[in-house]
Write a structure and sequence with these properties.
By secondary structure, the protein is an alpha+beta fold. It has two domains: about 55 residues, no CATH class; about 90 residues, Immunoglobulins (Immunoglobulin-like, Sandwich), CATH 2.60.40.10. About 20% of the residues lie in helices and about 60% in strands. The protein is rod-shaped. The longest helix is centred in the first third of the chain and has 19 residues.
Amino acid sequence: MVSEEAKRPDHKKLIVGVIVITAIVIVLFVPIIPVEVTYSETESYEREATYVVDDWDLQEKLGWFDVYVQSDVTVRNTDKYGGIFVVVHKLYDVYGLFGSVEDSFYLGPGDSFTSTATFDTSWGQDTVGSYDVTPPTVIDTRLVEKTKTVYKSIIEILIYG
């Protein structure tokens, strides 16, 4: 005769088998392995517009009843964006800064403009000039490579790399 213990199925082996299979499935399919991924992203940033000073001329000139110095600065926008450019003309004599004139103007991409300033001076007054150009600030975009950590499962790594 067969005992009752022999007729009953062994539940311990079944439970251990289910636990082992569950552990294998979890290890294979749950994303637990950290992987570094590189990707590209478009990013905005501020910069000054590019430009070229094509010409600068400083000349003493005679008017009908006066003498003056004229400063001409020709600026060309070499950027793909337009904006307001500012030119500051400065004139110096033996005592220091004689005067300054600020001129602002819009320049589109590829356009040029001659900014002119005049300074009333005396006949034969010894002067020297300079200028400063301040281009507009533009917002541009660039492609930046970034990395991040993502978690993958063993199956994902085996299938997709």
